[in-house]
Amino acid sequence: MEAIIQKITEINNAVNGVVWGVPGLVLLIGAGILLTIVTKVFQVSRLGHWWKNTIGSLFKKDVISHSKEKGSISPFQALCTALAATVGTGNIAGVAAAICIGGAGAVFWMWVAAFFGMMTNFSENVLGMYFRRKNANGEWSGGAMYYLRDGLGSKKHCKWIGTVLAVLFSIFTMLASFGIGSMGQVNKIVANVAAAFDVKALSSIEAFGGVSLYNVIIGVVIMALTALITLGGLKRIASVAEKIVPVMVALFIAGSIVIIGVNYNAIIPAFKAIFVNAFKPEAFVGGGIGAIIGKVVTQGFKRGVFSNEAGLGSSVMVHSNSNIKEPVKQGMWGIFEVFADTMIVCTMTALVVLTSGGLEGGAFNVVTGEIAEGLTDATLVGGAFNYVFPWFNIGQRFVAIAMFLFAFTTVLGWSHYGSKAWEYLFGAKTTFIFRIIHVITVIFGAVLSSSLAWDISDTFNGLMMIPNLIGVVVLFPLVMKITKNYVDRKIKKKDVKPVLSFDESIQAEAEQALDAE
């Protein structure tokens, strides 16, 4: 058995080295640069416009009010559900790991990945909206599998390529939803909750194989909560997400600001470390940690994508359920999604870590790259909070609660992603089967101690990126066309026919809805 596990580990490491190594990351960042150029740096040149039409429109009825259309949700619900899936353990433990491995400079490269990732996510959502259609239940269905099959597949001699890539994307999405979208997140929840809120009477009892009864109980509770929400379908998931996500993000940012404010003397050294370490790691980090700039860049890019998922094609599957008719309008919510996830939440986490020790030691020392004794990358953020709030372990408990909310909502979001992939392969009438399987996998996350399951799901997550980005890159002229059409109509006020859908009947219906607005 050990030999088999060893072989699986070797194969997984080899594949992971490609999809999350230089080849995969070049494809990822290259796609982001291409899409930024062809959209004329939309994330900057149209900053005021997309900001006004996303976060600036939250008090508009058509943005926040619940949709009466079957299977569709409001733009705000779509954003919250997408953020529910993206804002997870990567925003806390992932950022800390990037800094531990790649040094403070990794944060700079996370920002770079996010800057270009904004347009990757924008383009994915534009294509997802353009190629969406109604399923057998009368609900919207969209995602990379559809623009691979109907977009890439419509190109000369590419029909079979588009079909195969669509199937592969769906398979990888389902497998990732069981791993990073369920077991991996729950594993982190249980570990943090059990450490911060230890109940000796339960944790001292071994249920089986070295797993405590406390871990099992936490897992069962999470599984029950997951079942209660996800078995109700997207509407229920979105309803929960729109209530939890804004609160959890606001609380984490507020807590982070307090920590950073207390350590205000270290703010300038922290930013200096980020920018200097990004190009000259040895100036700040010794002892081999981040000594090679390639490691700094790779960690920044990798952890950035882990966090915001731009390029994976995942959030397209929920954005496509929006009741918005304009592909570009929903695409702009994709820009804000990446901005909120990486530029705000991840930056807060990074500054908490980098200011917690400053030049004096503490949880993390920006000069030496050393972590305080007793802390690991998984507990570093909790340790940083504890340095400011040491009483009754308040800091660690706050982070444990944040991790619970971040990770649990990720489980909810990925349940929808996996169900959409299942729907593409097996039909809309059978998605309830997938949701039940997904709920069952939650308990495995609570009892697994090996990191192999996480590593394998990591790989499947990365494998989603390959077919998705192939489709997005090939279809970039269409993204240009749809974006130019929107800018001409909405910004330059030209009288041109809107480009809204590949399907003539959906196009006509959408045009009629726009005329009625």
Describe this structure as you would to a colleague.
With 517 residues, the chain is an all-alpha fold. It contains 23 helices and 4 strands. The strands form 2 sheets. The chain has a two-stranded antiparallel ribbon with strand order 1-2. It has a two-stranded antiparallel sheet with strand order 3-4. It is globular, with a radius of gyration of 22 Å. The model is unreliable at 283-292 (pLDDT under 50).
Helix content: over 70%
Structurally, the number of domains stands at: 1
pLDDT < 50 runs, ≥5 residues: 283-292
**CA radius of gyration:** 22 Å
**Name of the CATH first level:** Mainly Alpha
Gross morphology is globular
Distance between the termini: 64 Å
Give me the secondary-structure category.
Answer: mainly alpha
Give the beta-strand count.
4
Give the SSE order as H and E letters: HHHHHHHHEEHHHEEHHHHHHHHHHHH
Q: What is the topology, as strand order, of the major beta sheet?
A: 1-2
| Mean pLDDT value | 80
Task: Please count the helical segments.
Answer: 23
The largest sheet, given as strand count, sense and whether it forms a barrel, is: 2 strands, antiparallel
Oligomer: single chain
